[in-house]
Amino acid sequence: xxxxxxxxxxxVVGAEDGYRALLRATVEVxxxxxxxxxxxxxxxxxxxEELVFEAVAGEGADTLVGQRFPxxxxxxxxxxxxxxxxxxxxxxxxxxxxxxAAESTGFVPKGLMAVPLLAEEKTLGVxxxxxxxxxxxxxxxxxxxxxxxxxQAAIALDLLQRARRARAALEGEGELKTLAAFAAKLxxxxxxxxxxxxxxxxxxxxxx
Amino acid sequence: xxLLAHESDEEYGLPAWSLSASAGDSIRIRGGWPERVTRxxxxxxxTGAGVRVxxxxxxxxxxxxxxxxxxxxxxxxxxxxxxxxxxxxAGDLCGHxxxxxxxxxxxAPDCELTSVRVLGAGYTGSAAVMLAGLEWAIEQGxxxxxxxxxxxxxxxxxxxxxxxxxxxxxxxxxVASAHNMPIESFPWRFASVxxxxxxxxxxxLTFYANPSPPVEFFARGLNVDIAWLGGETINATGxxxxxxxxxxxxxxxxxxxxxLTPFQLKSVLHLTASxxxx
Lengths: 208, 278
Description:
Order of helices and strands of chain A: HEEEHEHEEHHH
Structural class of chain B: alpha/beta
Number of domains of chain A: 2
CATH topology of the largest domain in chain A: Beta-Lactamase
CATH architecture of chain B: 3-Layer(aba) Sandwich
Number of helices of chain A: 6
Largest interface: A-B, 40 and 41 residues
Radius of gyration of chain A: 21 Å
CATH class of the largest domain in chain A: Alpha Beta
Mean pLDDT of chain A: 85
CATH architecture of the largest domain in chain A: 2-Layer Sandwich
Number of domains of chain B: 1
Oligomer: heterodimer
Number of strands of chain A: 6
Radius of gyration of chain B: 18 Å
Strand order of the largest sheet of chain A: 3-2-1-6-5-4
Order of helices and strands of chain B: HHEEEHEHEHEEEEEEHH
Distance between the termini of chain B: 45 Å
Protein backbone atom coordinates (compact mmCIF):
# COMPACT_ATOMS: atom_id res chain seq x y z
CA UNK A 1 0.00 0.00 0.00
CA UNK A 2 1.33 3.44 -0.95
CA UNK A 3 1.75 6.24 1.59
CA UNK A 4 -1.21 8.07 0.02
CA UNK A 5 -3.45 5.02 0.23
CA UNK A 6 -2.39 4.38 3.82
CA UNK A 7 -3.13 7.98 4.82
CA UNK A 8 -6.57 7.99 3.13
CA UNK A 9 -7.36 4.53 4.51
CA UNK A 10 -6.68 5.70 8.07
CA UNK A 11 -9.13 8.60 7.59
CA VAL A 12 -11.80 6.48 5.89
CA VAL A 13 -11.71 3.65 8.44
CA GLY A 14 -11.92 6.13 11.31
CA ALA A 15 -14.75 7.98 9.61
CA GLU A 16 -16.71 4.77 9.00
CA ASP A 17 -16.53 3.87 12.70
CA GLY A 18 -17.56 7.42 13.62
CA TYR A 19 -20.56 7.48 11.28
CA ARG A 20 -21.71 4.09 12.55
CA ALA A 21 -21.52 5.46 16.10
CA LEU A 22 -23.47 8.56 15.03
CA LEU A 23 -26.21 6.38 13.53
CA ARG A 24 -26.33 4.27 16.69
CA ALA A 25 -26.54 7.44 18.81
CA THR A 26 -29.42 8.72 16.64
CA VAL A 27 -31.52 5.57 17.17
CA GLU A 28 -30.73 5.61 20.89
CA VAL A 29 -31.92 9.22 21.21
CA UNK A 30 -35.01 8.48 19.09
CA UNK A 31 -35.85 5.58 21.40
CA UNK A 32 -35.32 7.70 24.52
CA UNK A 33 -37.28 10.74 23.28
CA UNK A 34 -40.32 8.65 22.36
CA UNK A 35 -39.95 6.42 25.49
CA UNK A 36 -40.06 3.48 23.09
CA UNK A 37 -39.01 -0.16 23.53
CA UNK A 38 -36.74 -0.12 20.49
CA UNK A 39 -35.63 1.96 17.53
CA UNK A 40 -33.76 0.90 14.41
CA UNK A 41 -32.36 2.13 11.13
CA UNK A 42 -32.59 -0.01 8.01
CA UNK A 43 -30.43 0.45 4.95
CA UNK A 44 -32.13 -0.15 1.59
CA UNK A 45 -30.03 -2.51 -0.55
CA UNK A 46 -31.36 -1.66 -4.01
CA UNK A 47 -29.51 -4.51 -5.73
CA UNK A 48 -31.16 -7.26 -3.69
CA GLU A 49 -34.29 -5.19 -2.90
CA GLU A 50 -33.82 -5.92 0.79
CA LEU A 51 -33.72 -3.85 3.97
CA VAL A 52 -30.75 -4.47 6.27
CA PHE A 53 -30.70 -3.70 10.01
CA GLU A 54 -27.91 -1.10 10.26
CA ALA A 55 -28.33 0.23 13.83
CA VAL A 56 -30.59 -0.93 16.67
CA ALA A 57 -31.32 0.46 20.14
CA GLY A 58 -33.31 -1.46 22.78
CA GLU A 59 -34.92 -4.84 21.99
CA GLY A 60 -32.74 -6.76 19.53
CA ALA A 61 -29.72 -4.42 19.79
CA ASP A 62 -27.32 -7.37 20.17
CA THR A 63 -28.68 -9.68 17.52
CA LEU A 64 -30.37 -7.83 14.69
CA VAL A 65 -27.62 -5.76 13.01
CA GLY A 66 -26.88 -7.25 9.60
CA GLN A 67 -30.18 -9.18 9.31
CA ARG A 68 -32.09 -8.71 6.05
CA PHE A 69 -35.70 -8.94 4.87
CA PRO A 70 -37.59 -8.12 1.64
CA UNK A 71 -37.99 -4.36 1.09
CA UNK A 72 -41.43 -4.39 -0.48
CA UNK A 73 -43.58 -5.80 2.33
CA UNK A 74 -44.75 -4.73 5.76
CA UNK A 75 -44.72 -1.23 7.21
CA UNK A 76 -41.07 -0.57 6.28
CA UNK A 77 -41.86 -1.62 2.70
CA UNK A 78 -44.81 0.78 2.65
CA UNK A 79 -42.53 3.62 3.75
CA UNK A 80 -39.82 2.77 1.19
CA UNK A 81 -42.35 2.58 -1.63
CA UNK A 82 -44.32 5.72 -0.76
CA UNK A 83 -41.47 7.83 0.76
CA UNK A 84 -44.00 9.00 3.38
CA UNK A 85 -43.96 8.40 7.15
CA UNK A 86 -46.49 5.98 8.63
CA UNK A 87 -47.56 5.41 12.22
CA UNK A 88 -49.58 2.31 13.17
CA UNK A 89 -50.81 1.81 16.73
CA UNK A 90 -52.50 -1.61 16.65
CA UNK A 91 -50.22 -3.86 14.63
CA UNK A 92 -51.14 -7.00 16.54
CA UNK A 93 -54.38 -7.03 14.50
CA UNK A 94 -52.25 -7.83 11.46
CA UNK A 95 -51.63 -11.53 11.99
CA UNK A 96 -49.37 -11.88 8.96
CA UNK A 97 -47.12 -9.03 10.11
CA UNK A 98 -46.99 -10.39 13.68
CA UNK A 99 -45.93 -13.83 12.49
CA UNK A 100 -43.27 -12.48 10.13
CA ALA A 101 -41.88 -10.13 12.78
CA ALA A 102 -41.76 -12.88 15.38
CA GLU A 103 -39.96 -15.22 12.98
CA SER A 104 -37.34 -12.69 11.90
CA THR A 105 -36.72 -10.70 15.09
CA GLY A 106 -38.31 -12.62 17.96
CA PHE A 107 -40.17 -9.45 18.97
CA VAL A 108 -43.71 -8.45 17.99
CA PRO A 109 -44.39 -4.74 18.47
CA LYS A 110 -47.88 -3.44 19.23
CA GLY A 111 -47.22 -0.08 17.58
CA LEU A 112 -44.71 1.22 15.08
CA MET A 113 -43.62 4.60 13.72
CA ALA A 114 -41.67 4.53 10.47
CA VAL A 115 -40.12 7.34 8.45
CA PRO A 116 -38.17 7.18 5.17
CA LEU A 117 -34.51 8.24 5.16
CA LEU A 118 -34.18 10.50 2.14
CA ALA A 119 -31.10 12.10 0.63
CA GLU A 120 -32.30 14.43 -2.13
CA GLU A 121 -33.63 12.08 -4.81
CA LYS A 122 -32.65 8.79 -3.19
CA THR A 123 -34.33 6.66 -0.53
CA LEU A 124 -31.50 5.38 1.67
CA GLY A 125 -33.55 3.41 4.17
CA VAL A 126 -36.07 3.60 7.00
CA UNK A 127 -36.05 4.68 10.66
CA UNK A 128 -38.49 2.77 12.87
CA UNK A 129 -39.51 3.45 16.46
CA UNK A 130 -41.30 0.52 18.11
CA UNK A 131 -43.83 0.52 20.94
CA UNK A 132 -44.07 4.07 22.20
CA UNK A 133 -46.29 4.10 25.33
CA UNK A 134 -49.90 4.08 24.13
CA UNK A 135 -51.52 5.70 27.18
CA UNK A 136 -51.40 8.99 25.31
CA UNK A 137 -52.73 9.38 21.77
CA UNK A 138 -50.20 9.98 19.02
CA UNK A 139 -49.98 13.63 17.86
CA UNK A 140 -48.86 15.35 14.68
CA UNK A 141 -46.13 17.12 16.69
CA UNK A 142 -44.63 13.66 17.31
CA UNK A 143 -44.87 13.01 13.57
CA UNK A 144 -42.85 16.18 12.92
CA UNK A 145 -40.28 15.10 15.53
CA UNK A 146 -40.03 11.72 13.84
CA UNK A 147 -39.36 13.50 10.52
CA UNK A 148 -36.54 15.51 12.12
CA UNK A 149 -34.93 12.33 13.47
CA UNK A 150 -35.34 10.78 10.04
CA UNK A 151 -33.46 13.70 8.54
CA GLN A 152 -30.58 13.28 10.99
CA ALA A 153 -30.43 9.51 10.53
CA ALA A 154 -30.43 10.00 6.73
CA ILE A 155 -27.37 12.25 6.96
CA ALA A 156 -25.51 9.72 9.15
CA LEU A 157 -26.49 6.84 6.86
CA ASP A 158 -25.41 8.78 3.77
CA LEU A 159 -21.99 9.53 5.34
CA LEU A 160 -21.59 5.89 6.38
CA GLN A 161 -22.31 4.70 2.85
CA ARG A 162 -19.87 7.23 1.38
CA ALA A 163 -17.14 6.01 3.75
CA ARG A 164 -17.89 2.41 2.76
CA ARG A 165 -17.64 3.27 -0.93
CA ALA A 166 -14.32 5.02 -0.28
CA ARG A 167 -13.00 1.95 1.55
CA ALA A 168 -14.16 -0.31 -1.25
CA ALA A 169 -12.29 1.93 -3.71
CA LEU A 170 -9.12 1.75 -1.62
CA GLU A 171 -9.42 -2.01 -1.54
CA GLY A 172 -9.70 -2.05 -5.33
CA GLU A 173 -13.47 -2.59 -5.50
CA GLY A 174 -16.47 -0.44 -6.41
CA GLU A 175 -16.91 2.36 -8.92
CA LEU A 176 -13.98 4.49 -7.64
CA LYS A 177 -11.38 1.75 -8.08
CA THR A 178 -9.99 3.33 -11.29
CA LEU A 179 -9.46 6.58 -9.42
CA ALA A 180 -7.74 4.78 -6.53
CA ALA A 181 -5.49 2.88 -8.96
CA PHE A 182 -4.62 6.19 -10.64
CA ALA A 183 -3.72 7.74 -7.26
CA ALA A 184 -1.48 4.76 -6.46
CA LYS A 185 0.24 5.06 -9.85
CA LEU A 186 0.78 8.79 -9.30
CA UNK A 187 2.25 8.11 -5.87
CA UNK A 188 4.91 5.84 -7.36
CA UNK A 189 5.74 8.03 -10.42
CA UNK A 190 8.75 10.37 -10.82
CA UNK A 191 8.19 14.14 -10.79
CA UNK A 192 7.79 14.65 -14.57
CA UNK A 193 5.32 11.79 -14.87
CA UNK A 194 3.42 13.01 -11.85
CA UNK A 195 3.12 16.57 -13.25
CA UNK A 196 1.98 15.24 -16.64
CA UNK A 197 -0.56 12.99 -14.93
CA UNK A 198 -1.95 15.83 -12.81
CA UNK A 199 -2.16 18.14 -15.88
CA UNK A 200 -4.12 15.44 -17.69
CA UNK A 201 -6.45 14.97 -14.72
CA UNK A 202 -6.98 18.73 -14.46
CA UNK A 203 -7.85 18.90 -18.17
CA UNK A 204 -10.39 16.11 -17.66
CA UNK A 205 -11.88 17.92 -14.67
CA UNK A 206 -12.36 21.10 -16.79
CA UNK A 207 -13.93 19.05 -19.58
CA UNK A 208 -16.45 17.49 -17.18
CA UNK B 1 -46.44 13.73 -26.41
CA UNK B 2 -50.16 13.13 -26.66
CA LEU B 3 -51.48 15.50 -24.01
CA LEU B 4 -50.75 19.05 -25.11
CA ALA B 5 -52.64 21.91 -23.54
CA HIS B 6 -54.10 23.28 -26.77
CA GLU B 7 -55.88 19.99 -27.50
CA SER B 8 -58.35 20.77 -24.76
CA ASP B 9 -59.29 24.06 -26.42
CA GLU B 10 -60.16 22.19 -29.62
CA GLU B 11 -62.11 19.62 -27.66
CA TYR B 12 -64.42 22.23 -26.13
CA GLY B 13 -64.75 24.13 -29.42
CA LEU B 14 -64.01 27.44 -27.74
CA PRO B 15 -62.24 30.39 -29.28
CA ALA B 16 -58.73 29.72 -28.11
CA TRP B 17 -57.16 33.13 -27.77
CA SER B 18 -59.81 35.88 -28.16
CA LEU B 19 -63.52 36.61 -28.06
CA SER B 20 -65.37 38.85 -30.51
CA ALA B 21 -67.78 41.56 -29.27
CA SER B 22 -70.89 39.58 -30.23
CA ALA B 23 -69.72 36.15 -29.10
CA GLY B 24 -70.25 36.57 -25.36
CA ASP B 25 -73.74 35.04 -25.51
CA SER B 26 -72.45 31.95 -27.30
CA ILE B 27 -70.44 30.94 -24.26
CA ARG B 28 -72.98 31.67 -21.54
CA ILE B 29 -72.27 29.60 -18.43
CA ARG B 30 -75.01 28.51 -16.06
CA GLY B 31 -74.72 30.32 -12.73
CA GLY B 32 -77.09 29.33 -9.97
CA TRP B 33 -74.75 29.45 -7.02
CA PRO B 34 -76.59 30.54 -3.90
CA GLU B 35 -75.69 33.80 -2.18
CA ARG B 36 -74.03 31.74 0.52
CA VAL B 37 -72.47 28.41 -0.52
CA THR B 38 -73.27 25.97 2.30
CA ARG B 39 -72.19 22.39 2.84
CA UNK B 40 -75.76 21.34 2.29
CA UNK B 41 -75.81 23.01 -1.13
CA UNK B 42 -72.30 21.77 -1.95
CA UNK B 43 -72.56 18.08 -1.04
CA UNK B 44 -75.58 17.43 1.22
CA UNK B 45 -77.14 14.01 0.43
CA UNK B 46 -74.47 13.28 -2.21
CA THR B 47 -73.00 9.77 -2.31
CA GLY B 48 -70.55 10.50 -5.10
CA ALA B 49 -72.74 8.58 -7.57
CA GLY B 50 -71.69 9.10 -11.18
CA VAL B 51 -68.23 10.41 -10.25
CA ARG B 52 -65.19 8.54 -11.55
CA VAL B 53 -62.32 8.50 -9.04
CA UNK B 54 -58.84 7.15 -9.82
CA UNK B 55 -56.47 5.97 -7.08
CA UNK B 56 -52.95 6.43 -8.48
CA UNK B 57 -51.01 4.36 -5.99
CA UNK B 58 -49.74 0.87 -5.10
CA UNK B 59 -52.88 -0.94 -6.32
CA UNK B 60 -56.04 -1.80 -4.41
CA UNK B 61 -56.73 -5.15 -2.74
CA UNK B 62 -59.46 -7.03 -4.59
CA UNK B 63 -62.68 -7.72 -2.68
CA UNK B 64 -61.68 -5.84 0.48
CA UNK B 65 -64.88 -5.57 2.58
CA UNK B 66 -64.38 -1.82 3.13
CA UNK B 67 -63.91 -1.13 -0.59
CA UNK B 68 -66.14 -3.48 -2.57
CA UNK B 69 -66.18 -3.13 -6.30
CA UNK B 70 -63.18 -1.64 -8.09
CA UNK B 71 -64.30 -0.81 -11.62
CA UNK B 72 -60.94 -1.41 -13.21
CA UNK B 73 -57.36 -2.14 -12.06
CA UNK B 74 -54.37 -1.40 -14.25
CA UNK B 75 -50.64 -1.55 -13.53
CA UNK B 76 -47.92 0.62 -15.01
CA UNK B 77 -44.46 -0.93 -15.26
CA UNK B 78 -41.16 -0.43 -16.99
CA UNK B 79 -39.81 -3.02 -19.41
CA UNK B 80 -36.36 -1.78 -20.37
CA UNK B 81 -36.96 1.73 -21.68
CA UNK B 82 -40.58 1.01 -22.51
CA UNK B 83 -43.52 1.86 -20.25
CA UNK B 84 -46.21 -0.82 -20.19
CA UNK B 85 -49.79 -0.14 -19.02
CA UNK B 86 -51.92 -3.27 -18.67
CA UNK B 87 -54.96 -4.60 -16.83
CA UNK B 88 -53.87 -6.29 -13.64
CA UNK B 89 -55.33 -8.49 -10.92
CA ALA B 90 -52.37 -8.62 -8.50
CA GLY B 91 -54.06 -6.25 -6.04
CA ASP B 92 -51.77 -4.30 -3.71
CA LEU B 93 -48.35 -5.33 -2.35
CA CYS B 94 -47.80 -2.74 0.37
CA GLY B 95 -51.34 -1.65 1.32
CA HIS B 96 -51.08 2.09 0.68
CA UNK B 97 -53.52 2.24 -2.25
CA UNK B 98 -55.96 -0.03 -0.40
CA UNK B 99 -55.95 2.37 2.57
CA UNK B 100 -56.65 5.37 0.31
CA UNK B 101 -59.42 3.58 -1.60
CA UNK B 102 -61.07 2.55 1.69
CA UNK B 103 -61.21 6.15 2.90
CA UNK B 104 -62.71 7.34 -0.39
CA UNK B 105 -65.30 4.55 -0.37
CA UNK B 106 -66.33 5.31 3.25
CA UNK B 107 -67.11 8.97 2.41
CA ALA B 108 -68.35 8.65 -1.18
CA PRO B 109 -69.90 5.13 -1.17
CA ASP B 110 -71.36 5.27 -4.68
CA CYS B 111 -68.42 6.75 -6.61
CA GLU B 112 -66.76 4.60 -9.26
CA LEU B 113 -63.22 3.55 -8.23
CA THR B 114 -60.36 2.70 -10.58
CA SER B 115 -56.91 1.62 -9.40
CA VAL B 116 -53.75 2.56 -11.29
CA ARG B 117 -50.68 0.89 -9.77
CA VAL B 118 -47.55 3.01 -10.14
CA LEU B 119 -45.84 2.21 -6.82
CA GLY B 120 -44.04 -0.92 -5.71
CA ALA B 121 -42.61 -2.17 -9.00
CA GLY B 122 -38.93 -1.68 -8.15
CA TYR B 123 -37.06 1.42 -7.05
CA THR B 124 -35.59 2.62 -10.33
CA GLY B 125 -37.64 4.45 -12.92
CA SER B 126 -40.43 4.96 -10.43
CA ALA B 127 -40.94 8.65 -11.31
CA ALA B 128 -41.29 7.79 -15.02
CA VAL B 129 -43.86 5.12 -14.11
CA MET B 130 -45.79 7.59 -11.94
CA LEU B 131 -45.87 10.15 -14.77
CA ALA B 132 -47.04 7.55 -17.30
CA GLY B 133 -49.81 6.48 -14.91
CA LEU B 134 -50.89 10.08 -14.39
CA GLU B 135 -50.92 10.74 -18.13
CA TRP B 136 -53.05 7.63 -18.65
CA ALA B 137 -55.47 8.75 -15.91
CA ILE B 138 -55.85 12.18 -17.52
CA GLU B 139 -56.44 10.60 -20.94
CA GLN B 140 -59.19 8.45 -19.40
CA GLY B 141 -60.94 11.61 -18.21
CA UNK B 142 -61.37 10.70 -14.54
CA UNK B 143 -63.16 13.37 -12.50
CA UNK B 144 -60.83 13.01 -9.50
CA UNK B 145 -57.33 11.51 -9.20
CA UNK B 146 -56.06 10.76 -5.69
CA UNK B 147 -52.26 11.15 -5.52
CA UNK B 148 -51.05 10.30 -2.03
CA UNK B 149 -47.55 10.30 -3.47
CA UNK B 150 -44.88 12.63 -4.79
CA UNK B 151 -41.52 12.66 -6.53
CA UNK B 152 -38.30 14.49 -5.69
CA UNK B 153 -36.76 13.81 -9.13
CA UNK B 154 -36.07 17.24 -10.56
CA UNK B 155 -35.77 16.12 -14.18
CA UNK B 156 -39.46 15.12 -14.11
CA UNK B 157 -40.79 18.31 -12.53
CA UNK B 158 -41.44 20.22 -15.81
CA UNK B 159 -43.37 17.34 -17.35
CA UNK B 160 -45.32 16.79 -14.14
CA UNK B 161 -46.17 20.50 -14.00
CA UNK B 162 -47.36 20.35 -17.61
CA UNK B 163 -49.55 17.30 -16.90
CA UNK B 164 -51.05 18.97 -13.81
CA UNK B 165 -52.03 21.97 -15.96
CA UNK B 166 -53.49 19.73 -18.68
CA UNK B 167 -55.55 17.92 -16.04
CA UNK B 168 -56.79 21.27 -14.68
CA UNK B 169 -58.13 22.37 -18.06
CA UNK B 170 -59.53 18.92 -18.90
CA UNK B 171 -61.55 19.02 -15.66
CA UNK B 172 -59.66 16.26 -13.90
CA UNK B 173 -59.05 17.24 -10.28
CA UNK B 174 -55.66 16.14 -8.95
CA VAL B 175 -55.67 15.87 -5.16
CA ALA B 176 -52.08 15.49 -3.90
CA SER B 177 -50.45 14.81 -0.53
CA ALA B 178 -48.11 17.38 0.93
CA HIS B 179 -44.87 15.78 2.05
CA ASN B 180 -44.72 16.02 5.83
CA MET B 181 -40.94 15.99 5.85
CA PRO B 182 -38.59 18.87 5.10
CA ILE B 183 -37.84 17.92 1.49
CA GLU B 184 -38.83 19.44 -1.85
CA SER B 185 -41.26 17.19 -3.69
CA PHE B 186 -43.99 17.46 -6.35
CA PRO B 187 -46.81 17.72 -7.60
CA TRP B 188 -48.42 18.97 -4.38
CA ARG B 189 -46.57 22.30 -4.66
CA PHE B 190 -48.28 23.17 -7.97
CA ALA B 191 -51.20 25.65 -7.95
CA SER B 192 -53.20 23.56 -10.45
CA VAL B 193 -53.61 20.67 -7.97
CA UNK B 194 -55.35 20.57 -4.59
CA UNK B 195 -52.69 19.93 -1.94
CA UNK B 196 -53.56 18.36 1.39
CA UNK B 197 -51.93 18.10 4.83
CA UNK B 198 -53.24 16.55 8.08
CA UNK B 199 -55.20 17.92 11.02
CA UNK B 200 -55.69 16.19 14.38
CA UNK B 201 -59.48 16.14 14.64
CA UNK B 202 -61.47 12.95 14.66
CA UNK B 203 -63.98 13.82 11.94
CA UNK B 204 -63.88 12.75 8.30
CA LEU B 205 -65.76 15.80 7.00
CA THR B 206 -63.87 18.46 8.98
CA PHE B 207 -61.38 20.21 6.71
CA TYR B 208 -59.59 23.54 6.88
CA ALA B 209 -58.52 26.02 4.20
CA ASN B 210 -54.93 27.10 4.80
CA PRO B 211 -54.36 30.85 4.34
CA SER B 212 -50.62 30.12 3.88
CA PRO B 213 -50.16 27.73 0.93
CA PRO B 214 -48.58 25.69 -0.70
CA VAL B 215 -50.56 23.26 1.51
CA GLU B 216 -54.09 24.44 0.64
CA PHE B 217 -56.29 22.23 2.82
CA PHE B 218 -55.93 20.21 6.02
CA ALA B 219 -58.02 17.05 6.40
CA ARG B 220 -58.19 14.13 8.81
CA GLY B 221 -54.86 12.29 8.94
CA LEU B 222 -54.37 11.29 12.58
CA ASN B 223 -55.39 7.93 14.04
CA VAL B 224 -57.56 7.01 11.06
CA ASP B 225 -59.14 3.56 10.73
CA ILE B 226 -57.88 2.38 7.35
CA ALA B 227 -58.40 -0.67 5.15
CA TRP B 228 -55.35 -2.94 5.60
CA LEU B 229 -54.16 -5.90 3.58
CA GLY B 230 -55.88 -9.24 4.17
CA GLY B 231 -59.33 -7.66 4.50
CA GLU B 232 -58.29 -6.10 7.84
CA THR B 233 -58.79 -2.64 9.34
CA ILE B 234 -56.02 -0.88 11.26
CA ASN B 235 -55.50 2.49 12.96
CA ALA B 236 -52.79 4.65 11.40
CA THR B 237 -51.49 8.22 10.92
CA GLY B 238 -50.07 9.96 7.84
CA UNK B 239 -50.63 12.74 5.30
CA UNK B 240 -51.35 9.95 2.84
CA UNK B 241 -54.71 9.53 4.59
CA UNK B 242 -55.71 13.19 4.63
CA UNK B 243 -55.59 13.37 0.82
CA UNK B 244 -58.28 10.73 0.10
CA UNK B 245 -60.59 12.55 2.54
CA UNK B 246 -60.44 15.65 0.32
CA UNK B 247 -60.57 13.52 -2.87
CA UNK B 248 -63.77 11.92 -1.55
CA UNK B 249 -65.30 15.28 -0.59
CA UNK B 250 -64.51 16.46 -4.16
CA UNK B 251 -66.39 13.36 -5.40
CA UNK B 252 -69.37 14.27 -3.20
CA UNK B 253 -69.40 17.84 -4.57
CA UNK B 254 -69.06 16.69 -8.20
CA UNK B 255 -71.81 14.11 -7.61
CA UNK B 256 -74.15 17.01 -6.93
CA UNK B 257 -72.57 19.59 -9.26
CA UNK B 258 -70.91 17.76 -12.15
CA UNK B 259 -70.55 20.98 -14.14
CA LEU B 260 -67.95 22.46 -11.80
CA THR B 261 -64.47 23.17 -13.17
CA PRO B 262 -61.40 22.56 -10.95
CA PHE B 263 -61.28 26.32 -10.36
CA GLN B 264 -64.90 26.37 -9.18
CA LEU B 265 -64.52 23.17 -7.16
CA LYS B 266 -61.57 24.63 -5.26
CA SER B 267 -63.70 27.71 -4.54
CA VAL B 268 -66.51 25.50 -3.19
CA LEU B 269 -63.99 23.66 -0.98
CA HIS B 270 -62.76 26.99 0.31
CA LEU B 271 -66.28 28.31 1.02
CA THR B 272 -67.30 25.12 2.86
CA ALA B 273 -64.07 24.70 4.85
CA SER B 274 -64.56 24.40 8.62
CA UNK B 275 -62.57 27.59 9.34
CA UNK B 276 -64.15 29.94 6.79
CA UNK B 277 -66.60 32.35 8.44
CA UNK B 278 -70.11 32.67 7.06
